[in-house]
């Protein structure tokens, strides 16, 4: 299924000349034919004003492709989960969030990418295990911070 999404993005960029800041699922351009009936005339560079039309398009497209139906927000949820796994710093996740079109990272955290129960258990269990610290890739500031933390804990403070 990822091939379908990649092909769609490529189509938007090469055929529709859309940029990275334009909608992934742009609004349909409508015109009138010779009988003054409405007809599809391509795509605009605008967002849909509501999600109803895009939900119908998704439903019809998945049915036509004989694939299980996924709603549009399932893609955002998947992208957020992917970001949670790929991003290794708050700054990286903030950039990921902005790339989803969210002004604030809290929108991403509160609205998408819920941690599944089995993954939550894994995370909590790992918190109790010692962590390997890769000191070779730490910046000087990170080393000083880690050192200070260890000294404070040893001093009981």
Task: Write the H/E string, N to C.
Answer: HEEHHHHHH
Task: Tell me the structural class.
Answer: mainly alpha
* Count of separate DSSP helical elements: 7
Mean pLDDT over the residues: 83
Measure the end-to-end span.
Answer: 53 Å
Count the E strands. Answer: 2
Helix content: 40-55%
Residues in β-strands, percent: 5-15%
Number of domains: 2
What ranges have pLDDT less than 50 throughout 5 or more consecutive residues? Answer: none
Strand order of the largest sheet: 1-2
Instruction: Report Rg.
Output: 23 Å
- Characterize the main sheet: 2 strands, antiparallel
Note the overall shape.
elongated
Task: Please explain how this structure is put together.
By secondary structure, the chain is mainly α. The protein has 2 domains: about 1-70, no CATH class; about 75-130. It contains 7 helices and 2 strands; from the N terminus they run αββαααααα. The chain has helices at about 1-15, 50-65, 70-85, 90-100, 105-110, 115-125, 140-155; strands at about 30, 40-45. Strands 1-2 form a two-stranded antiparallel sheet. β1 and β2 form a beta hairpin. The chain is elongated and about 85 Å long. The termini are far apart. The mean pLDDT is about 85.
């Amino acid at each position: 299924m990822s091939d379908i999404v990649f092909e769609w993005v490529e189509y938007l960029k090469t055929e529709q000349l859309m940029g990275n800041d334009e909608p992934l699922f742009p609004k349909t351009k409508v015109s009138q034919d010779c009988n003054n009936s409405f007809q599809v005339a391509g795509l605009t560079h605008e967002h849909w004003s509501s999600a109803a039309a895009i939900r119908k398009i998704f439903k019809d497209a998945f049915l036509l492709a004989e694939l299980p139906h996924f709603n549009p927000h399932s893609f955002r949820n998947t992208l957020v989960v992917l970001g949670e796994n790929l991003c290794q710093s708050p700054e990286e996740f903030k950039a990921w969030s902005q790339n989803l079109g969210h002004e604030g990272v809290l929108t991403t955290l509160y609205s998408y990418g819920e941690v599944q129960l089995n993954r939550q258990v894994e995370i909590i269990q790992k918190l109790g295990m010692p962590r390997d610290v890769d000191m070779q890739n730490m910046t000087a500031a990170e080393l000083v911070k880690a050192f200070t933390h260890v000294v404070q804990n040893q001093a009981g403070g």
